[in-house]
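Q: Structure tokens for this one, please.
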Amino acid sequence: REDVPNLEAAIYLDGPTLQKLQEFEKVAFTNELLLSNVLEKGTLTPAEGDGGHLVPDPELKASWAKTIGEMAAGKRRVGILWRSGLIDRKRKRFYFELEALRPLLDLPDCAFFTLQHAASAEEIQWCQENGIQVVEADLFEDFEAVAAITSELDVIVGPSTLPLEMAAAVGTPALIPG
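A: Here is the predicted structure, written as tokens:
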């Protein structure tokens, strides 16, 4: 356990997995990517540069740049999400209801895009009725698409879940309401 920087995660790692981790130069938990643009751990001092570490596939990025650009029609591109795909009693407190995003939707000159993976039919309908663009991609399984899509947005707002953490990894500002 002393070799794993996060004791909570250590219970999920078996011997072979821990051994495999030793092959890599840097191992980080995805939520650490949100802090990758912080100069000194434990501070809020921004580091130099954009903070991105992952580079999306150039062809996929170009394709999504065109699609998102057309959908945004010159407005600021804001990605939003409100929950994880996995919700239980313990985790529920970290997420919020879709309706809580309503005040955000009043911001002028913004085009909103849902990045919510595993969104229900009701949630998708709510988004469409409230002017939130629905991105047609597998936001749960297709990490390459998530990287390309989030790299084309100006900011992502939501709880710490894969799309938000992927945005941080590609250098897109990621904000967690709290």
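A few notes: The beta strands are 76-80, 110-114, 132-134, 155-157, 174-175. The first helix runs from residue 7 to 10.
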